[in-house]
Design brief:
single chain, alpha/beta, 11 helices, AB_hydrolase_1, AB_hydrolase_fold, eight-stranded mixed sheet, hydrolase, Rossmann fold
């Protein structure tokens, strides 16, 4: 994997891409969740790098893509289009975990032609009807509520909430380790409340697959996925023995499901 970066006025955005890049192969673009980074997908890189082109990033304001000023989902989608243009990528299969699913839908909202397929992993949908007034209110409280816990307790609670296995738990702690409390709480705020500013009723024309850890305890992710599949008819695969970070908790099932969807659907 080759490390690269996109230079923007707000800050540099780091990404990793297969080297050499083979234009005859499909490209898989992995997008991590809020407060995470590209290391979340190590099990997927190991599985897919021989057969597909791989693209990962540290989303703006996350991981190595810091400092970054004024994150928005619109800016994130514009940055992805610029990364695709720089690398002559016309289309990719987007695998968006949690917030990465929001970013993917922000891209579909603006540049649907570059999304060949969309795999939403422990994520939630764009669409006004999914979120009650109460949901919207509490999403807007995430940032200040994070400040109520001591830093060490906050990080441990976040890791415990998203992971079922020791490996996933330690990976989450590692991803969180670079942030101070102010930055961490702000990221949670812009990740969740910021999504509301870009949310809209969205028609997705490419093939879509939903995946959900059977023990996902993050917010109302389970509830939203049930509504999402019921409303749209998208196939929902429940990953056993996995929490919110199911790509790390149960990579064998996740990877096999991804392969099946890429090769046999749409």
């Amino acid at each position: 994997m080759k490390e690269c970066y996109l230079k923007t006025e707000e800050g540099n955005i780091f990404y990793w891409i297969s080297s050499p890049y083979d234009n005859t192969k499909k490209t898989l673009f992995f997008l991590h969740g809020v407060t995470g980074d590209h290391t979340l997908f190590q099990e997927q890189i190991d599985c897919f790098e021989d057969k597909y082109n791989i693209l990962l990033w540290d989303a703006p304001a996350h991981g190595k893509s810091r400092p970054y000023q004024l994150f928005t989902y619109e800016k994130a989608s514009m940055a992805i289009k610029d990364i695709f243009n720089e690398n002559h990528i016309s289309r990719a299969i987007f695998i968006g975990h949690s917030m990465g699913g929001f970013v993917t839908q922000a891209v579909i909202k603006r540049f649907p032609e570059i999304v060949e397929k969309f795999i939403a992993v422990d994520s939630t949908p764009y669409g006004k009807e999914y979120y009650s007034k109460s949901d919207v209110f509490w999403l807007k409280q995430v940032e200040w509520m994070g400040h109520l816990l001591p830093m060490k307790s906050l990080k441990k609670a976040m890791a415990k909430q998203v992971a079922e296995t020791e490996k996933a738990y330690n990976n989450m702690l590692d991803m969180l380790s670079i942030y101070d409390k102010k930055e961490l709480c702000h990221l949670m705020g812009i990740g969740y409340a910021g999504f509301l500013n870009d949310n809209c009723d969205l028609e997705i024309k490419c093939p879509v697959l939903l995946m959900l850890g059977d023990k996902d305890k993050a917010g109302k992710v389970k509830k939203y996925n049930m509504k999402w599949t019921e409303k749209t008819g998208y196939r929902l695969v429940v990953v056993e023995n996995a929490g919110h970070n199911s790509v790390m908790d149960n990579p064998d099932v996740v990877n096999a499901t991804i392969i099946d969807f890429i090769e046999n659907e749409g």
